[in-house]
Amino acid sequence: MILSKLATLLFFASFFGIILCLGYLAHKKQSKILSVALVLLPAIIVAIRFQTGSDTENYKDIYDSLNSTSLHDAIIQITSFSFEPFTILSARLSDFIGFGYFFYFLAHSLPTFAASLFVSKKIDPNRWWLLFASIALILLPYSLNIMRQTLAASLFVLLLVLLAKKQKSWLAIVATFILMISCHFSSILLLPVLFIHPLISRKRFESLFFLLFVVIIISLAAFPFIFSFISSNELLPPKYLEAIGVSKFNLFNFDFVIFLALSVFLYITRKFENRYSPEHNQYLSLIILCNLFYAGIGFFSAYIGRMSDYFWPVAVIGIWFLLDRFRDSFRLKGIVYICLIFTYFVASCFILGNNQIVPYGVM
Questions:
Q1: Which long-range contacts (CB under 8 A, 24 or more apart) does 293-296 make?
Q2: What is the distance between the alpha carbons of residues 199 and 192, in angstroms, rounded to a whole number?
Q3: How far, in Å, CA of 131 to CA of 23, rounded?
Q4: Using an 8 Å Cβ cutoff, are 260 and 291 in contact?
């Protein structure tokens, strides 16, 4: 078991290092070929997977089931919230062209890492390779387990970037949101995030920080009553009513602790000099606060608490924004950042055992 975990750690450390080096070379040489390789490498690892991941067999069963039913039955499954449109389309297309499970997994992993690369380059054109390597490391084990939600998470971060633009394209925003839902139905619960930025964009974020924090805490306290109202009035399909039911109170929520610490440090260092616009920093801080709401609900409902997974790429970006506010050399900040990201990875996947990444390791 120990040797297996050490081998797993070595595999992911090597993966992280290779992506960092490839990304740096792609940026330095402005090479499109290396940029394509950055996306293909993690995507293919996920696609071949070698029985890796807790949901792999389940995904295979879904693939076989979708290709053994008629198109009419597939449409019924969409309307009953059984399977998402993208899941059905990718499964049937993969079966049609004859690539089987490989293409089915690749259809999810390729856009996941492509969207992450696009977001990294948009957020920081000079340090994008550092951001992408970190996001890829965090998303890789998630892609091996909850690949549909991981794809939706990458689209969600893309959606946040589109919202942060001064010249917004609402057609692109709406299209991305619809595509995100078509990859995983749970992402519809992120709809409130779309309305938050316009509400605060005309006011000073600093004056709203503690007010928002208080609102979040109150909302968490009120959640059991809100769920009771939703349940009694059957405002959601039975499948989701059962999934979001209030569970036994859990004292420790890893996501909540991480995002709470990050939001506090971002607020403390808000007046530090940094390369990013005030709007960019304010928006990032706000999104992290929004995630506190979803992660906090994880104290009560594991299903809604899982919405916090959508924000993990934002946390990776937020950690870099925080470190970049200090005047130390880039080399020092980069080393600290890499250590923090890999520490989170080890804590999440090895200590807390959040992801089953067999045979790269046995959790």
A1: 293/216, 293/219, 293/220, 294/189, 295/253, 295/255, 295/256, 295/259, 296/216, 296/217, 296/219, 296/220, 296/253, 296/256
A2: 11
A3: 10
A4: no
Report the length, in residues, of the chain: 363
- Please choose, from the candidates 161, 83, 148, the residue with its C-alpha nearest in 3D space to the C-alpha of residue 121: 161
Of 114, 120, 119, 153, nearest to 294 (Cα)?
153
Could you write out the DSSP letters of every residue in 33-92? HHHHHHHHHHHHHHHH-TT-STTHHHHHHHHHHHTTS-HHHHHHHHHTTSS-HHHHHHHH
Reading the block at residue 353, the tokens are 């055992």
The gap between the terminal CA atoms of the chain, to the nearest Å, is 8
Q: What is the DSSP string of 204-258?
A: -HHHHHHHHHHHHHHHHHHHHHHHHHHHHTT-S-HHHHHHT------S--HHHHH
* Full-model pTM: 0.80
What are 326-338's pLDDT values in tens digits? 877 888 988 999 9
Angstrom distance (rounded) from CA 257 to CA 295: 9
Segment 132-165, tens digit of pLDDT: 999 999 888 888 888 888 899 999 989 888 887 7
CA 52-104-130 angle, to 5 degrees, is 65
Tokens matching residue 186:
């749970």
Tokens 């594991």 correspond to 302
Nearest-10 crossing angle of helices 312-323, 147-164: 50
What is the Cα–Cα distance from 89 to 110, expressed in whole angstroms?
15
